[in-house]
Amino acid sequence: MTDSINPRRLFVGRVAAAIAALTGIPGIARAESLTTTLADDSQLDAWIRQLKGKHRQLFDAVDVNDRAMLMASSYLDIYQNDFGAKLGEVNAVIGLHGLALNIGFTDAAWTKYAFGKSGNVIDPSTKEPAVRNLFATGGELSVDTLQKRGVVFLMCNNTMRRRSRALATERGETFEAVYKDLEASRLPGTILVPAMAVAISRAQENGITYIRV
Question: Which residues contact 152 (CB under 8 A, 6 or more apart)?
C-alpha cells in the first residue's frame, strides 16, 4: 500500500534539497552533519572552549580606561582569596569595542593613529595626549599582567572595520591598507572576534555571565 504524501514531510524534503543544492552536499543527513560540525568545531568559538573554570565572567569594555581590567582583577582576587577557588576554576574575559578597542593596540599604532588624542588619554609623564599604549604593559592592571593571570582579551572586528574606514578617509588611504595595518598591530594574545555583540551572546549561551563596564 502506498503512503499518502504528507505536506509537512514534503516541505522538509524541499528544504533539505535546497540546503543540499546550496552546499553541494546531497541528502538531509549530510546537511545536518555539516550544521553540527560547524556549530561544534567553529574556530570562532575556540576562545569559549578554552575556558574550563566553574566561574566564568565576561566584562564588556566600551571606554578607553582601566575599569574593566580593575573589575577582572578584583573578580579573580575575590574568588581566590575569599572563596578559596583554585587556579583554573575562575575565568575572566574582557571584550574590547568602541573606544576601548584602543587598549588592544601596540604603541606604534597609538603613535601613528593618535589614539591618545582621539580617546582623550593623557600620558602622566608628558601631560600630553598619549602616543603610547598606557594599558599594555608594566602595571598591575595592564593587559600583559592580566593575560599572565589567564584573562582573555577579545577585540571586535566590526569596530575595527568601522575604525579603519574612518581613519582611511581621514588620512587619504585605502580601507584595506589601514585595516591590514590595524590587524597586524594588535597586542600579542588578543583574540579578534567578528562582532562583540555576537561574542557576548554566544558566551551567555555557553553559561558565561556578563557585565557591561
Answer: 47, 50, 51, 91, 92, 93, 94, 191
**CA–CA gap between residue 206 and residue 208 (Å, rounded):** 6
Backbone phi and psi for residue 132, each to the nearest 5 degrees, phi listed first: -140, 160
In degrees to the nearest 10, what's the CA dihedral of 150, 156, 161, 167?
-70
Q: Which three cell numbers stand for residue 63?
A: 571606554
Residue 24: all three cell numbers together: 553541494
14 lies in the same domain as 87: no
Containing H/E element for 211?
strand 209-212
210 CB-near residues (< 8 Å, 6+ apart): 57, 58, 60, 200, 203, 204
The Cα–Cα gap between 213 and 195 comes to: 17
Q: Tens digits of per-residue pLDDT, 167-213?
A: 999 999 999 999 999 999 999 999 999 999 999 999 999 999 999 99
pTM for the whole structure: 0.80
Residues with Cβ within 8 Å of residue 89, at least 6 apart in sequence? 53, 54, 55, 79
Same domain, 152 and 181: yes
Residue ranges making up the domain that contains 124 = 45-212
- Residue 2 resides in a domain: no
